[in-house]
Automatic annotation (TrEMBL):
Coiled coil: none annotated. InterPro entries: NAD(P)-bd_dom, NAD(P)-bd_dom_sf, NAD(P)-dependent_oxidoreduct. GO terms for molecular function: aldehyde dehydrogenase (NAD+) activity. It comes from Amycolatopsis saalfeldensis. This is NAD dependent epimerase/dehydratase family protein. PANTHER family: NAD(P)-BINDING DOMAIN-CONTAINING PROTEIN-RELATED, PROTEIN YEEZ.
């Protein structure tokens, strides 16, 4: 296969490219800024239909590994920014891929769409603009692609691991905290976790199969306390992690939501509803359970 990878200079895009090439496929890397290993510099969100058709021509499939993550925040409504970052570029890319005769595609998304699908009673999309944008990304993207271009949605949880010059962005303040001498605290819930390499493997397998499925990626389920304990040990700062009472967590998030409203800030994940995520066990049954300890060590030491 010959695959176009949009966002190929990022952490996950790097590992998708690596797995494509390890399996003998060709890959073209697209990114918004010049960087070693980037084949084409183009902002897909701002590109014309003609530019995208020329970009996609000659490829068997496309991967979208860009977009805005759940930390998006700013003044005014966040929904238009999330649409511009997550939905519009996917629609434009898939429209061009369909016109070029591509036969497979994958979009790197979020495991929150998995939980919104299997637990509608949690009302994640209703509460969080970011989750709504990811749902719309999948729905409108597939409508644009049509039946002849299957689009796999790779539902990514907490990711550990590194790439050249890249670490998981969520890990930067966390690792700084862990490396300090400050006490460690964690809520009672937990999350599915995977390695960046694991995301690359699952994405390439989805392309090879042209599956067009919703695919949650998970190698191991970790309680927050366990996750922090392992990260602290990997960083050489091993110490106990205390559990924060649920009522305290809820009060903290309610206060954070109030402060945001006063400041006129609108985050992708509504802070006042984050207790509904962090106090739950956001676990997914791993198809092939594997430890993420090596990826945790890479993240903590990067």
């Amino acid at each position: 296969m010959k695959i176009l990878v949009v966002g190929g200079s990022g952490l996950l895009g790097h590992h998708v490219l690596e797995q494509l090439r390890l399996r003998g496929h060709e890959a073209t890397t697209v990114a918004r800024t010049p960087r070693e290993g980037v084949d084409r510099v183009l902002d897909v969100a701002a590109a014309s239909d003609e530019e995208l058709r020329e970009l996609v021509a000659g490829h068997d499939g496309v991967v979208f590994a860009g977009g805005m993550d759940d930390r998006a925040v700013g003044k005014g409504p966040v929904a238009p920014r999330l649409y511009a970052g997550n939905v519009a570029p996917v629609v434009a890319l898939l429209r061009a891929a369909r016109a070029a005769g591509c036969t497979r595609a994958a979009v790197l998304a979020s495991y929150y769409t998995y939980f919104d699908r299997v637990h509608p009673e949690w009302e994640l999309a209703a509460k969080h603009p970011y989750v709504r944008s990811r749902n719309e990304q999948a729905r409108v993207g597939r409508e644009t692609a049509g039946p002849d271009l299957p689009v796999a949605i790779i539902e990514v949880p907490f990711v550990f691991g590194v790439a050249p010059g890249r670490v998981p962005e969520w890990s930067v303040p966390l690792v700084k905290w862990i490396r300090s001498s400050a006490p460690l605290f964690a809520p009672a819930g937990g999350s599915a976790a995977t390695s960046a390499r694991g995301v690359g493997i699952v994405t390439v397998e989805a392309l090879e199969d042209a599956s067009g499925a919703d695919i949650p990626v998970v190698e191991e389920n970790l309680h927050w306390k366990d996750m922090l304990t392992r990260m602290a040990g990997a960083a050489g700062r091993a110490r106990p992690v205390r559990t924060i009472p649920g009522a305290v967590v809820t009060a903290m998030f309610r206060l954070g939501g109030f402060v945001n409203r006063v400041a006129g800030k609108h985050p992708g994940l509504a802070i006042e509803h984050l207790d509904g995520l962090f106090l739950r066990e956001l676990f997914v049954e791993p198809p092939v359970p594997r430890s993420v300890d090596e990826a945790i060590r890479e993240t903590a030491k990067a």
